[in-house]
Amino acid sequence: MRSLFRLSGEGEGFVPPSSNDFELPPVFGDNAFTTKPIILVFLSVILVSVFFLLSSRKAAVVPSKLQFAGESIYSFVRNDLGRDIIGHEFMRFVPYLFTLFTFVLTNNIFGIVPFLQFPAMSRVSFPYVLAVFTFVVFHYVGIRKQGLIKYLKDIMFMPGVPKPVYILLTPIELATFFLVRPLTLSLRLFANMFAGHLLLLVFILGGEHLFQGVLGLKLISPFAFAFGIGLTFFEFMVQCLQAYIFTLLTALYIAGALADEH
Amino acid sequence: MENSLYAAAEKVNPLVPHTAELIVGAVAFLLLFLVLRSRVVPMFEKAFTERTAAIQGGMERAEKAQLEAQRALAQYNDQLSTAREEAQKMREDARVQGTAIVEELRVKAQEEAARITAAAHASIESERQQAVTSLRSEVGALAVELASKIVGEALDDQARQSRIVDRFLDDLEKSK
Predict the structure, then answer these.
(1) Whole-prediction pTM value?
(2) What ipTM is given for this predicted complex?
(3) Residue-wise pLDDT tens for chain B (176 aa)?
(4) Chain B residue with minimal CA distance to A67?
(5) Contact, B36 vs A49, CB < 8 A?
(6) What percent of chain A shows pLDDT beyond 90?
(7) Is B170 part of any domain?
(8) Residue B116 CA, distance from chain mean position
(9) A239: distance to nearest CA of chain B, Å?
(10) Could you tell me the CA-to-CA distances from A237 to A8, A92, A110, A193 in Å, in that order?
(11) In 10 A of CB A44, how many CB atoms?
């Protein structure tokens, strides 16, 4: 029984995937700018630009299929994430939200695109950058709208609260606005993509390893592969969802900064 | 095996960002932002605006057509009621005129009747006069004949005869 499930005949142990698997060497040259994630990010910029430039080029009243596809994504961000959440000033923020959504979505989906198969957002630097942009945007909007003093005062001393509560509330609010929001925004995206990719690696590399084992293990390996395929579909859902959530939260933060009272 | 796992965890902290990736992330995002903002968003917005305008234009045209139709209907109804009124007035006029004509005819007929009656009266009177005159001569002859028969006296003599008659008539006149 024990020999049936021994991992490998030659005694060479299975090395589970780790964070090291996300540290990829340069694809060409000896350069920090030619690693796979960086190439993928540039590829996403090209793909998204080309797709939307082509689909919006004619801007016809009666759209072609391509225009309809581009418009559907655009109007989803514009109406469901922009207009419905931010309100009447939404149009100013639509380009930003639109870029955010398409950029994150494309880089996430790279995780399950054959041959690419690496979600660029599982490199924490990219979510950090995006969170910093969102951080700057919503604070800037709030300060422009209400003035620096009133904006900070509204954050630190939420109106309509008994004075002693401020001892507790003020640190919490400050931390929320200046630390928790950008951190959770970036880490949520990063961790989902990181964990998703790790899971796929575990099931697919594990299945491969099992297949190299003795007969009993060979029989199990198809289940590992099947699970890997099932998880790929699940990952697709998570990738779309995370792109949506990142954009949604950005829109909510902007809406909160625009609102007169929190 | 445990060693390698431990070593992997030691080597890389996935939460530490890479400078190159930070730069690329920012540049790539800004690049995409500029492209989408300057080219894509205005085009889609243009399409949306034009579509809204097209739909609104269509609706306005339909509304206008409906208004036109309503106005035409009102006009038609107006004309219809005017025509009805006119017809009513004409019928009324005709009735009044008819009554007048009948009245006139009646008056004329009455006049005619009166005229005929008067003429008849006149002719009857003249006939009576005639009858009286002829009667008078006949009565004279008859009376003479009768008297001669009764008296037995032939009054052949014309002159005498007429004298007697005249005398008789004169007596009659006198006795009157």
Answers:
(1) 0.72
(2) 0.89
(3) 344 444 444 567 889 999 999 999 999 999 999 999 999 999 999 999 999 999 989 999 999 999 999 999 999 999 999 999 999 999 999 999 999 999 999 999 999 999 999 999 999 999 999 988 888 888 878 887 777 776 665 656 677 778 877 888 888 878 76
(4) B44
(5) yes
(6) 65
(7) yes
(8) 44
(9) 18
(10) 35, 29, 13, 11
(11) 24
From the list A74, A123, A129, which residue is nearest B26 (CB)?
Answer: A129
Tokens of A144: 């422009």
Query: Terminal CA-to-CA distance of chain A, rounded, Å?
Result: 64
CB A33 within 8 A of CB A40: no
B76 has a chain A CB within 8 A of its CB = no
Interchain CB distance below 8 Å, B40 and A44:
no
By C-alpha distance, the chain B residue nearest A21 is B8
A98 → closest Cβ in B13, B26, B36? B36
A178 pLDDT band, cuts 50/70/90, is: very high
Residues in A touching B9 (Cβ below 8 Å): 18-19
Residue A129 and residue A145: Cα distance in Å, rounded? 24
What is the separation of C-alpha A83 from the centre of its chain, rounded to a whole number of angstroms? Answer: 22
Q: Does B153 fall in a domain?
A: yes
A123 touches chain B (CB under 8 A): yes
For residue B40, the chain A residues in CB contact (below 8 A) are 52-53, 56, 70, 74, 98
Q: Which of A21, A40, A98, A205 to mutate: most B Cβ within 10 Å? A: A98
How high is the pLDDT of residue B176? 64
Task: With CB atoms and an 8 Å threshold, state whether B24 touches A15.
Answer: no
pLDDT band for position A12 (cuts 50, 70, 90): low
Tell me, yes or no, whether B11 lies in a domain: no
Measure the CA–CA gap between B37 and B25, rounded to whole angstroms: 18
pLDDT of residue A260: 66
Residue B4 inside a domain? The answer is: no
**A26 and chain B: CB distance < 8 Å anywhere?**
no
Residues 6+ apart with CB under 8 A from B31: A45
Residue ranges making up the domain that contains B157: 16-175
Residue reference for tokens 């060479």: A12
Q: Specify the number of domains making up chain B.
A: 1
